[in-house]
Specification:
With 518 residues, the chain is of the alpha+beta class. The chain has helices at residues 8-73, 83-95, 129-137, 183-188, 226-231, 272-318, 332-361, 375-380, 395-402, 404-421, 445-460, 486-502, and strands at residues 102-107, 112-116, 141-142, 146-147, 153-162, 168-177, 199-203, 209-211, 237-242, 248-255, 261-267, 370-371, 385-392, 427-432, 435-441, 472-478, 508-510.
């Protein structure tokens, strides 16, 4: 069998192609590895800095709370037994500070003399851990979290009260409701998101979570977590860990003065998107240079190889037909144009491929909606618009009862319904899970509310793939009437959606205006 013949030009082009692709691949891979390592290191350093900063801030916050209570305890009202006067003073103190959710004065026997706001605690004998500790030690204290007589999980910050003769009269205390809005939450809830899922949580000296962005986690004991064990020993540091759900985290931790642990962590997957973006940038910069080098190589290759090719062709033909004339130098541009045409076709083909891939990366594969990645780009081009943020009520029940396949069908059904009820100029986004966002260009909030109600009513009166109607809760906001900045508008509308959920679901709530600037 006659072996297959290969041309010198093909071999050289193949070698050149491998060299260029290998160079690009090496550049991208090395860049990705370096970028990934640097991002991980930077996140660990940043989280370490932030955890230590919050630890200092928390220490300062509680120090200020104790100083404020100490100063208040010197008021003459607490030297008397007039509960009405004491209640009035407590109310005034509570209104003058943002530290506490409530205040109370307890006598030396543990009975509540007065509280603010009044919740029928007067005369109640306190046997809670925080009260017992304050009565026994008679010094300024910050209690461990415990369940109060009102059924809330609280922290009790207390200072003793003495009369002019040094006799112990009881203690003055402020409480922080851990499951409600409080001063501690305001301090700890300001973690910079960096468009990722970074967050902070805090544990007390027993490993009980006293602050977490997810209120359900508050009160949970996390002592088995390795970094919790380290931070409760007074250690500060940063490392990669697996959280309780098995998710890789870049976590940093710092211990506060009252032996609490501050943990700031970022999912490791947060580095994936910037790493991919870096790889794209490397390709976008390198490919034009590669194309230029390739074209120049073709020109040089043609000058070297074409005479040999012509002679080889002549040698091949001459063995068959002796009358074949001796070749002369052909039109050099013939093969160059063919190669150019082939290259342009290949480039055009891969450009279309890249455009298709980029387009698909901005779309949710299940619903066909835009995904969150393309949201800001789309919104930034608009001047005035309204948004509707909607969430399927009790969607977890659908998944649990009918399975995730039916759940996916419900999501596709709702996306189609919403698309049919909106205008061609409106843009629909899937924000994640069962939450969707509709952007309505040049639409006032009244029209947006009308569209939202139309969608809501159509949804509750239409049979879904689960065999029965579903309902949706909605929040509505407007770029002119609610907030100037999109992030603020989205936050306010999300609060409106949460309010719709809290009010019983299957309803529409218009967001309250915030920070409107002319």
């Amino acid at each position: 069998m006659k072996p297959k013949m290969l041309s010198v030009k093909l071999l050289i082009l193949t070698l050149l192609g491998f060299a260029m692709i290998g160079t690009l691949a090496g550049s991208v891979i090395s860049g990705v590895v370096v970028s990934k390592n640097n991002l991980e290191k930077n996140y660990l350093i940043e989280n370490q800095f932030y955890a230590e900063k919050l630890a200092d801030t928390t220490n300062s916050l509680f120090s200020t709370m104790l100083k404020s209570l100490t100063l208040e305890s010197q008021d003459s009202e607490y030297l008397h037994t007039d509960s009405t006067a004491i209640n009035k003073e407590l109310t005034h103190f509570l209104d003058s500070t943002t530290f506490f959710n409530s205040t109370l004065f307890v006598d030396s026997k543990g009975k509540v003399v007065a509280s603010a706001p009044e919740v029928n605690l007067k005369g109640i004998q306190l046997n809670t851990p925080g009260a017992k500790e304050a009565l026994i030690q008679k010094v300024p204290l910050i209690s461990q979290p415990y369940i109060s007589v009102t059924g809330r999980m609280i922290l009790l910050i207390s200072v003793p009260v003495f009369d002019d003769n040094g006799s112990y009269l009881g203690f003055l205390a402020g409480t922080i409701y851990l499951h409600e809005d409080n001063s501690l939450k305001k301090v700890l809830g300001q973690h910079p998101k960096h468009q990722n899922d970074s967050y902070v949580y805090v544990v007390d000296s027993h490993g009980d979570i006293i602050y977490h962005p997810d209120p359900i986690r508050i009160g949970e004991n996390a002592i088995e977590n390795k970094i919790i064990q380290k931070v409760l020993k007074g250690e500060n540091g940063a490392q990669e860990i697996l959280d309780t759900k098995g998710i890789p985290m870049l976590a940093a931790y710092a211990s506060s003065a009252n032996n609490w642990g501050i943990i700031s962590q970022t999912p490791k997957k947060a580095i994936l998107e910037p790493t991919i973006e870096m790889a794209k940038q490397v390709c976008l910069i390198a490919i034009p240079f590669m194309i230029f080098v390739f074209l120049m190589s073709l020109v040089m290759l043609k000058k070297i190889v074409d005479p040999i090719r012509n002679l080889s062709f002549y040698a091949q033909q001459i063995t068959v037909d002796s009358s074949v004339p001796k070749p002369h130098i052909p039109d050099w541009y013939f093969e160059l144009k063919e190669l150019e045409r082939a290259i342009l076709i290949a480039v055009e083909f891969y450009e279309k491929k890249i455009i298709n891939v980029e387009s698909e990366s901005n779309l949710d594969p299940l619903t066909g909606y835009y995904n969150r990645r393309s949201l800001e780009e789309k919104v930034n081009s608009l001047e005035m618009y309204s948004i509707i943020l909607l969430d399927i009520d009790l969607f977890k029940t659908v998944n649990d009862q009918y399975g995730h396949q039916v759940g996916d069908e419900v999501l596709k059904y709702l996306s189609t319904l919403v698309k049919n009820e909106t205008r061609e100029s409106d843009m629909c986004f899937r924000m994640g899970g069962e939450e969707f966002l509709i952007v309505l260009p040049e639409t006032d909030i009244g029209t947006a509310n009308m569209i939202a109600e139309r969608i809501r009513k159509k949804t509750e009166n239409t049979i879904s793939p689960s065999g029965k109607p579903i309902t949706v809760s909605m929040g509505i906001g407007n770029s002119s009437e609610t907030a100037n900045h999109f992030s603020q508008l989205l936050h306010a509308t999300d609060k409106a959606l949460y309010q719709a959920k809290q009010q019983g679901r299957n309803r529409t709530v218009i967001a309250n205006p915030i920070n409107i600037e002319n």
